[in-house]
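Dear Dr. L.,

I hope this message finds you well. Following up on our conversation about the binding site, I have prepared a predicted three-dimensional model of the protein together with ME8. For your records, I am including the exact sequence and ligand specification that went into the calculation, followed by the structure tokens. Please feel free to forward this to your student if that is useful.
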Amino acid sequence: MKNKFYVTTPIYYPNDIPHIGHAYTTIIADVLARWNKFKGKKVFLLTGTDEHGKKIQAIAEKFNKKPKEFTDSLIPKFKDAWKKLNIDYDRFIRTTDKDHEKVVKEILQKIYNKGDIYKGTYKGLYCTGCEAYYTDKDLKKGYCPIHKTKLEKLEEDTYFFKLSKYKNKLIEFYKKNPKFILPKNKKKEILNRLNKGLLDLSISRTSFDWGIPLPFDKKHICYVWFDALLNYYTAVKKNKEFWPPDLQIVAKDIMWFHAVIWPAILMSAEIKLPESIFIHGYWTINKEKISKSRGKTININELISIAGVDSARYFLLREIPFGKDGDFSEQALINRHNNELADKLGNLVSRVEGLIAPLGVPFYTEFYGKKNSIEKCENKLIKKLNLKKIEKLFENYELDKVLNEIFAFVDICNEYVQNKKPWETKNKKVLYELKESILKIAELLWPFIPETSEKITKQFSAKKIIKSEVLFKKII
Ligand code: ME8
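The resulting structure of the complex is given below.
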């Protein structure tokens, strides 16, 4: 089935409530899902939580709870956040879901049977924050390159997945599928690291028990990343027509797992690989890494309380080019809310509404009521909208540029009102052109700001347009 779009977010660790970083990835997925839905495709949007492993076990212990009891208490926070942000997901998967456990065991057994898993011992440095082993050369000044924390020396019996066997196959795959790792600079980074060598991957633990036991050796618990990555496969196992994922969105912190380990597991399990892994940048807050312990974090309720849901969605996608890092500040969000959503879009809608409202139903009848009346009426204004360009930008996931393009057209419409002065000329044709253009703008903005878009569409498709409340109140 080509007419489908399967898009995924990472499954987040429910060790805390979600923040703007998680919101960013999830909103991108939602925007692209909505766009593809609008284009008539069958869409599946997956998100969820990654609940096994040492990190979750440790935090649950801190709260005197069983791991599952602890994660159960956090799941509503994620679901509530996505609901408030209007994320229209098709499944919220939890790695503790029964069907997922079954899939993980099946795949492990399959790979084991074909000889891609063997037993050995592992000595190494482990970061629980990353749930990953590091070698000396990965470290930054002796500390974890991501968390900047000290690493634990671990030595344990473990099963290894023959990851090294797939090094050349992966390189070959990237060459044949230039869109597999996006953007290009990230592909370069991955290739550089891959060319330095690829070690086999330790995929089981015996030092704790919170996870899925290996089907061929129950004393061993499956490594959390091996378990987690397979969620993307579990989620659509019953809707096979969606496989493989068309787009998997992650940030650079976990690109290695998604661009190297994940496709190698799929190659070993003889499952078709995803089309594209898109690696986006990192948000900082006032130039600092998001960190709860240092008070540098913004949760979803705080984000929405600044200027509303649509302004938050708009800001996150508009502020930074897709793939680049960005800095979050409340003032920057307020500026975009005031200067772009209120002054440009809100102003256009309210002016045109105000001009059409006094005309009542006769305006509608003139342009829409009679047979063929619309065809007779050429819309010169709407022709200035470059739809082809917008489609192309959507295809390349350049969402900030899509918004740029739509807002350039909003500017054109505002200038049109200014220049044509329909309040003086009483030219209804101009109003018709504006009305149709506004409906088109609303349609194109639906993936980004669905609530506002639906309000505009409802208002401007009515037979009798009436003056309604302002869409975006300015924040002073
Ligand atoms: O890594 N800027 O979960 P996680 C942008 N469970 N995006 C950010 C961000 C930031 N500052 N902080 C987080 C895990 N993200 C694993 C994933 S998938 C099989 C397992 C987003 O809760 C971004 O998408 O640490 C990043 O990749 C993800 O949250 C990490 O979420």
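In brief: The pocket of ME8 is lined by residues 10-13, 21-22, 24-25, 50, 228-229, 231, 250-251, 253-254, 282-283, 290 (CB under 6 Å).

With kind regards,
A. P.
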